[in-house]
Amino acid sequence: MIYEGRAVSFGDLNPDVESEGIGRKNLIVSESISFHVVWISSAEKPHIHKEHDLIVFLIYGSGEFHVGDKVFRMKRGDSAYVPRGTPHWFKNISKTAIAYVIFIPPFDGKDNIPLSSGEEEGMEKEK
Predict the structure, then answer these.
(1) Between 20 and 30 A from 18 (CA), which of 25, 70, 96, 111?
(2) Where residue 63 sits, what CATH number does that domain have?
(3) Domain range for residue 41?
């Protein structure tokens, strides 16, 4: 990957932000789009992005990606699209998982709305 004018490996990068087993490095933020590397050591909490669509490319590891009422097994090289407002979360089933994530419009770190336990249970019952 080319980052800041030089070739780097994803393994050479470190998170800018870390919380509850999730790390994020902001790579590029423009007026219309943003690019990030995300590390997931265990599992995200179910959440939505009310104002952002996202595209996820799993570049290392494997896991279960919950999107709406569906669960997708993801491995290195797989990708997924999550429309804004769609409940989702990733559960790592490998030693570590690293994803390349694109947000449209650019992610400001604020539009991460957790789901209440009632909303999570409703999604599980729909399966």
Answers:
(1) 70
(2) 2.60.120.10
(3) 2-126
pTM: 0.82
As given in the structure block, the two tokens for residue 97 are 């998982």
Q: pLDDT at residue 9 above 90?
A: no
CB contact at 8 A, 74 and 40: no
User: Which H or E element spans position 118?
Assistant: helix 117-126
| Number of domains making up the chain | 1
SS3 (DSSP) at 126: helix
Q: What sign has the CA pseudo-torsion 70, 32, 92, 9?
A: positive
pLDDT digits (tens, 9 = 90+) for 61-107: 999 999 999 999 999 999 999 999 999 999 999 998 999 999 999 99
